[in-house]
Amino acid sequence: MKTFLAKKENVQQKWHLIDADGQVLGRLAVKAATLIRGRHKASYTPSVDTGDFVVVINAGKVALTGKKETQNEYMTFSGFVGGESYRSTPQMRAHQPEFIIMHAVKGMLPKNRIAAKMLTKLRVFAGPEHTHTAQNPVPVAI
Questions:
Q1: In a domain, 82, yes or no
Q2: CATH number, position 99
Q3: I need a surface site. Which of 104, 106, 111, 130 has the fewest CB within 10 A?
Q4: In a domain, 135, yes or no
Q5: How far apart are CA 13 and CA 49, in angstroms?
Q6: Angle between helix 25-37 and helix 97-107 axes, rounded to 10 deg
């Protein structure tokens, strides 16, 4: 019996919808990363992008456990000397709630060129409306 290796042109990609309202950030990010990588499929191949598209809504209502709400900080760097700036989680919720989920999912993907392409299949929206209703995303229970 031969080992099956998926090919890029034979991959059937689906759309999944995750509602982040009240969900724990880490568990949501694990589920999203698994769907984006394609680990849930029998045809999973590490060197081929076999994953699906994921739409996350209500990103501003994601829950953090423990003291992470007050202790987490997100760092950005401008590239210049002394160009570091930090934002706390409440500040990020107010300005960029999508970034919190994007940052968590990105950390759970492999650190290679394929992961950069995989991350483009994650669509995060702060509110309950999204622009991908035409793709008929299937709701996913976490």
A1: no
A2: 3.90.1180.10
A3: 111
A4: yes
A5: 10
A6: 60
For β-strands 15-19 and 122-124, DSSP reports them as unpaired
The beta strand positions in the chain, using DSSP E, are: 15-19, 53-57, 73-77, 84-88, 122-124, 138-139
Our separate counts of H helices and E strands in the chain read 5, 6
Number of domains in the chain: 1
Render pLDDT for 77-134 as a digit per residue (tens, 0 to 9). Answer: 999 999 999 999 999 999 999 999 999 999 999 999 999 999 999 999 999 999 999 9
**Exposure on the CB side of residue 32, measured as CA atoms within 13 A:** 32
Strand partners, 65: none
* 3-class secondary-structure state, position 24: strand
Query: What residues are paired with 123 via a beta bridge?
Result: 55
The HSE-up count of residue 102 (CA atoms within 13 Å, CB side) is 16
What radius of gyration, in Å, describes the C-alpha atoms of the chain? 17
